[in-house]
Amino acid sequence: MSHRSFSQWMGDIQQRTEAALDRALPAADVAPERLHQAMRYAVLGGGKRVRPLLVHAAGQLVQADNARLDRIASALELIHAYSLVHDDMPCMDDDALRRGKPTVHVEYDEATALLVGDALQTLAFQHVAEASLCDDPVRHIAMIRQLAIASGSRGMAGGQAIDLASVGLELNLSELEFMHIHKTGALIRASIALGAQCGRPLGDEAMATLDHVGKVVGLLFQVVDDILDAEADTATLGKTAGKDAANDKPTYVSLLGVSRARELAEEMCQDALASLAPFGDTAQRLSELTRFIVRRQF
Amino acid sequence: MSHRSFSQWMGDIQQRTEAALDRALPAADVAPERLHQAMRYAVLGGGKRVRPLLVHAAGQLVQADNARLDRIASALELIHAYSLVHDDMPCMDDDALRRGKPTVHVEYDEATALLVGDALQTLAFQHVAEASLCDDPVRHIAMIRQLAIASGSRGMAGGQAIDLASVGLELNLSELEFMHIHKTGALIRASIALGAQCGRPLGDEAMATLDHVGKVVGLLFQVVDDILDAEADTATLGKTAGKDAANDKPTYVSLLGVSRARELAEEMCQDALASLAPFGDTAQRLSELTRFIVRRQF
């Protein structure tokens, strides 16, 4: 059990993630320069780095090598960043602010934002194919497959499509959950599953437990996001607050109210923590991170 | 040496590519249905399948298994299809016609076109990580890396960015070549290189020769494309003709004139055929295909 505080650990991971992303991205003076500058603008210097934190926390379960965790964490963050760039575009959410800065299509232009998102996704897959993620190359290929499935039309991109289709509709709780399991949940779940494959192999039962934890954490992340979107202000969030209501999008808050949504997040947190208990001290960071995700203010 | 005619062989490859893509794509009745329908609309039922033809032609050099060639060919075609969907969007070329049909953003909507392109790219990487491409898993990972590099910011997507930046500019021949080596050349070059890695391993010298052939074929493909864009009509092309001139884009024809562009294509063809000569009969299809690419009318 590490006696470094959770906030120190979190700061360390955020810092090493920034450095890893900086190395993964092409330099700003490599041609085509404007594209590479815009890719760096989209990725560096901001973000909570939730997915990299989950990767490293899960890596603690299997004593994984930090360089391997950095690699899969960077890939997940590149996928997440590409999805934000495209999601902010005028034909999607049409948002001007992200991580406290103008969005890519505002700072550059729409065509560049389109290509930035495209090239960030490609870079994610290039990055995971450039050096080892684990000792077994067959498992390595399976991890690339898992990253793709979590990102694609039956994962994150599919969740975006369901989200688009749901604007102005009355969703019930299970439909809302179905959307979020895809839109944000798939990548969060993959973060835990992939981090846990970077070290000594776990058995099927342990992996199934972690998959359950990943599913729960993904949903509770979204419940808290909805609460923050409803309650916080734009300056605190670094992105436009209240936009779900403005866009007439169903949320946990619109369906349940803030008070019940908070209770739900707390129940999910307890579920995840109970599932992690059998892992003992090796689940320290993942448990702390789960509690942090529920209590975060941004 | 096969005595089946080239046009029979080409028809066979196009047919098996269509079937392979049909299997690779999620079914139209799988949720999210509209996204999956639009992905199928973007990919199936059209296109010359130049990249799959190159993969299979290169596969003949190494007696590669057809199922493996189908897999990498499908991935390359999915990447190509995603790039067309995004390239046709209003913020890029704003084109309404592709392969004789309305483009995806016209038939569906812009947000769907954005997600279709995103999800097709992801599917390409999922597909190459789902079954073996060659006997050695370490080489398999290197092939995934090569696919990503050819598609990304220093390959195809980078070429798109250079293309965007060049509208209205006076490029010289070497700048035009630099753009096309990326925009269309990278994926064509990768098609030959990847097809040639699906069977018995070739030596470094043979791979370097094939890389040269791939580079030359990529450029001559573009030279011919420019000639066709200048001379053919929209009905024959199945996409909007004359749009390069209309968009004030530099082309081989605008720089060299049609007659010199034709000579250049023929010189490149002879260069590629001479490079392929040492491979003897195993290069039959690749030589025939190179000649076909020069003489095509669409």
Using brief descriptors, characterize the structure shown.
homodimer; 298 residues; mainly alpha; Farnesyl Diphosphate Synthase; two-stranded antiparallel sheet; globular
Topology:
Two copies of one chain form a homodimer.
Chain A: H1 6-24, H2 33-43, H3 50-61, H4 66-87, E1 97-98, E2 101-102, H5 104-107, H6 110-128, H7 137-151, H8 156-166, H9 173-183, H10 185-195, H11 204-231, H12 234-237, H13 243-246, H14 252-256, H15 258-276, H16 284-295
Antiparallel strand pairs in A: 1-2
Helix pairs in contact in A: 1-4, 2-6, 3-4, 3-10, 3-16, 4-6, 4-10, 7-10, 8-9, 10-11, 11-15, 11-16, 15-16
Describe the structure.
- The structure is a homodimer of 298-residue chains.
- Chain A is mainly α.
- Chain A has a single domain (6-295), classed as Farnesyl Diphosphate Synthase.
- Helices cover 69% and strands 1% of the residues of chain A.
- The first copy, chain A, has 16 helices and 2 strands.
- Chain A has a two-stranded antiparallel ribbon.
- In chain A, helix 3 (50-61) packs antiparallel against helix 4, helix 7 (137-151) runs antiparallel to helix 10 (185-195) and helix 8 runs antiparallel to helix 9 (173-183).
- Chain A is globular.
- The model of chain A has no long low-confidence stretch (mean pLDDT 93).
- At the A-B interface, helix 2, helix 4, helix 6, helix 7 and helix 8 of A face helix 2, helix 4, helix 6, helix 7 and helix 8 of B.
Short précis:
The structure is a homodimer of 298-residue chains. By secondary structure, chain A is mainly α.
